[in-house]
TrEMBL record:
This is Integral membrane protein. Residues 775-785 have a biased composition (Polar residues). It comes from Streptomyces aurantiogriseus. Residues 53-73, 729-800 are annotated as: Disordered. The chain crosses the membrane at residues 94-112, 124-144, 189-206, 252-273, 285-306, 327-344, 364-383, 403-420, 440-462, 509-533, 553-573. Keywords: Membrane, Transmembrane, Transmembrane helix. Residues 53-63, 755-774, 790-800 have a biased composition (Basic and acidic residues).
């Protein structure tokens, strides 16, 4: 129990004030946040904790709040919430790069257009994303089956030349190990099935371990508020950050789906052999029973995924224990029986050609395309019905969710195709021994160069636009700093930084083009694979030489590119395991990508906010109730998003005691555009009305932070302050004798405007000056325009 809770609200403590600092992506040490080398942990653990200066450890006790003169404390107590170890504190988490498709499809769940909850369209949207996530699990396990079962155990071990080339496969090869027990095709497949089974078990273990650490953190048990009081945002619901039940159900379903995929890969190969004329009747019957059981298991898995979504209106502590335990166990037993059935001796059964992987991968691709198209239709309907985007701020006019879901499917295809191509090339050095991976994967690899050409052309267009923007910004830089002509090189650098920062706002175009091109190219690959049944180079034999040569080049280049992409993922993850700086960079990626709960895929990296938001909510709520005081929560970058989410979780009475200071905040520029249902204008306006005061700082050179575009109140005419100067001074001045750097997204505290806005908010909390509440603070000497000052330039935020 933290020290602030040890005392009742008596005496001077009732006038206490608190400043709660929350760092952004990349993390920060409490010594730096509090500007003091001596800090103590007030509450929390080694993963996330609240720190104070050593001198302020007992500052909120009744006998410590009063000063030596008997009056109230002259300044609020600063505290730092350090949460960086939730994402980037462990080197093994770099391996989460391999789970990137799962994380991306989980983001698509939260990108739906703003609409009232509990409508059929909203439920259907969530269901379609969950089904898309299920197909990604099947795709990952199917890729592992393709490598272990088809390429290794079936093709390479069944070919004498390939088995002799890889001596470790000799005991599986009937030509090398004559009479060996494992040389029968079914037994080879059963043994190789241990690899995808182990992969599925590893995913289950990681999901279960992180589920116990993150989803099991209970937020304050508050009462649900009317939707209108929260601006139709779900972030204020009691159960929003408590997805324990749903993640457990999805984990059971996805584990079952993975095990059923392995069982299907082994069982269908044996059943196909048993249906040939002259086969044993008993095995034929067993084959039908196995396939029927696999179909029933698949239907049960899909039913579990469709049956229940998120429960947010209350803390749902139920845990469907029978389902969570019995479904994976039942599929594991079915897998074991299937392996026994496949290992039965079948005279005359020899491995030749490929396992039926084309049908599997083709079916997955077809289902994923249909789900994305259906998701786009539902999203369009929701967007038209909502009517809550009058300024057109949504990233893709309601289609951001389907576009991102398409990217997740594309990433899954690239990774599965990449590992299959590379393993095939490794096993079959000259390309003469093996039939290779399924034809569809080869077609998908062949369209990769076309996609890259489209993206390269788009990047060139965006680059040209940025250059034009940089030239246009030169005049604005000279005008803002009142220098003419100034230093041309200095002006160009500042203008270039401003222009590059605007590229963030072009991300919707990049996502839209990539998703559309991927969908069209994937459809073309699917048609080509099933229409011809041949690889692109063989399908174009006898046609024009140029077309045939282009097909061969695209196939070879695409195969190398798709494999290179997978190798880069593995290499980056390995480097991050050993290199702390690389691990920090990857941690930043997860800070941005894993903010949202696991609502669509249980194997995605865990949601750190399900620990961080309850931490902040508990801290603010217990402190205000224990002391009766007020507080400022100050958040940088992603910390501002956590601060807003925690403020939504407070009761209305507690929110009135909270003031927000955000800087470098992506809360509107990124979250408001890509997640309009939760950070749209209505939600941000409702939060602004509920809290005591909100001030936001940003720079034109910041590629992440931006304005929140809200009208003001007694704190000021606008929530956004005019864009801060970056750099602080154009040239050398008496205050800046050395050249000032261009800071971009970092070091907002270095700007005098930060101290001014911080002091303005803290002054509202001091009990000795209650008259300042209800009127705007008078400008200080630092408000006067000066060279390089923040107020010396016009407001370019687009509001007011």
């Amino acid at each position: 129990m933290e020290r602030a809770q040890e005392h009742a609200v008596t005496g001077p403590a009732a006038g206490a004030a608190l400043e709660l600092l929350v760092h952004g992506v990349g993390g920060a040490r409490p010594e730096k946040m509090l500007n003091d080398p001596r800090t103590v942990r007030i509450t929390g653990d080694d993963t996330a904790a609240v720190f104070r200066r050593a001198d302020d450890a007992d500052a909120d006790r009744p006998d410590q709040v009063a000063t030596a003169t008997g009056g109230p404390r002259d300044r609020p107590v600063p505290e730092a919430y350090v949460w960086c170890n939730l994402t980037s504190g462990n080197g093994t988490r770099a391996l989460w790069l391999l789970l990137l498709p799962f994380m991306v499809v989980n983001l698509a769940h939260w990108m739906r257009p703003a609409a009232r909850e509990r409508t059929r369209a909203v439920r259907l949207y969530g269901l379609l994303v969950r089904l898309a996530g299920l197909t990604l699990t099947v795709l990952l396990v199917a890729a592992a089956c393709e490598v272990a079962l088809d390429l290794t155990a079936w093709q390479c071990a069944g070919t004498r030349a390939c088995a002799e080339r890889h001596s470790w496969l000799g005991f599986l090869s009937p030509a090398v190990s004559v009479g060996g027990w494992w040389t029968l095709p079914g037994r080879r497949l059963a043994l190789a099935a241990l690899v995808p089974t182990a992969l599925t078990g590893l995913l289950w273990y990681l999901s279960h371990r992180t589920w116990r650490a993150y989803e099991s953190q209970e937020p304050p048990n508050g009462k649900p508020e009317p939707e209108d009081a929260l601006g139709h945002t779900a972030l204020g619901r009691p159960g929003f950050w408590y997805g324990r039940r749903l993640v457990a159900r999805l984990r059971a379903a996805h584990t079952a789906a993975g095990l059923l995929t392995v069982a299907a890969a082994v069982g269908t190969a044996a059943a196909r052999q048993d249906r040939r004329p002259g086969g044993p009747a008993l095995l034929d019957i067993l084959g039908w029973l196995v396939e029927g059981a696999l179909a029933a298991g698949g239907l049960a898995t899909v039913w579990v995924v469709c049956r229940r979504g998120r429960s947010e209106h209350r803390l749902d502590r139920a845990l469907d224990a029978h389902l969570v335990r019995r479904l994976p166990l039942a599929t594991l037993v079915l897998l074991a029986l299937t392996l026994v059935y496949a290992g039965w001796e079948r005279p005359g059964w020899q491995s030749a050609g490929r396992l039926p992987g084309d049908v599997t991968f083709g079916g997955i691709a077809l289902i994923q395309g249909a789900l994305v198209i259906a998701l786009a239709v539902v999203a369009s309907v929701l967007y038209r019905r909502s009517g809550r985007d009058p300024e057109g701020r949504a990233a893709l006019r309601g289609l951001e969710g389907p576009a991102v879901a398409m990217l997740a499917c594309a990433l899954g295809g690239v990774m599965s195709g990449g590992v299959s191509q590379r393993v095939s090339d490794w096993l079959d050095g000259t390309g003469t021994f093996l039939a290779g991976p399924p034809v569809l994967l080869t077609w998908q690899a062949s369209v990769i160069p076309v996609l890259l050409i489209v993206l390269l052309a788009l990047c060139v267009l965006l680059g040209r636009g940025a250059l034009r923007q940089a030239r246009a910004e030169r005049a604005a830089v000279s005008r803002d700093y009142d220098v003419d002509p100034g230093d041309p090189a200095r002006t160009r650098r500042i203008a270039r930084a401003r222009a590059m920062a605007t590229l963030t706002d072009r991300a919707p175009l990049l996502v839209a083009v990539t998703s559309t091109t991927t969908l069209l190219m994937g459809a073309g690959a699917l048609v080509g694979a099933f229409a011809t049944g041949k690889t692109p180079d063989r399908a174009t034999e006898g046609t024009h030489p140029f077309l045939h040569g282009a097909a061969q080049t695209g196939q070879a280049l695409g195969s190398w590119l798709i494999g290179l992409g997978f190798i880069l993922f593995v290499t980056w993850g390995r480097r991050a395991y050993k290199d702390a700086s690389a691990r920090r960079t990857i941690g930043i990626l997860w800070d941005v990508g894993t903010f949202w709960p696991r609502a669509a895929h249980p194997f995605s990296p865990p949601c750190y906010a399900e620990r961080a938001v309850p931490d902040l909510t508990w801290r603010m709520a217990t402190w205000t109730r224990a002391t009766g005081g007020r507080l400022v929560i100050s958040g940088h970058s992603q910390g501002s998003v956590l601060a807003a989410a925690a403020a939504w979780q407070l009761s209305p009475a507690d929110r009135k005691r909270v003031a927000l200071l955000t800087y470098g905040s992506p809360i509107e520029r990124l979250y408001g555009r890509w997640f309009p249902a939760h950070f749209g204008p209505a939600a941000l306006n409702a939060l602004h009305d509920d809290v005591d005061c909100w001030r936001n700082l940003y720079r034109l050179t910041d590629p992440i932070g931006g304005p929140v575009r809200l009208s003001g109140d007694d704190c000021g005419p606008e929530v956004d302050r005019a864009p801060l100067a970056d750099p602080l001074a154009y040239g050398r001045t008496e205050d800046h004798p050395l050249p000032s750097p261009i800071l971009g997204h970092s070091d907002y505290q270095a700007d005098p405007a930060f101290a001014e806005e911080r002091e303005r908010l803290l002054a509202r909390l001091r009990p000795e000056v209650p008259e300042q509440r209800g009127r705007q603070a008078q400008p200080t000497d630092t408000d006067s325009p000066q060279e390089g000052g923040a107020e010396a330039r016009p407001d370019k935020s687009g509001v007011g």
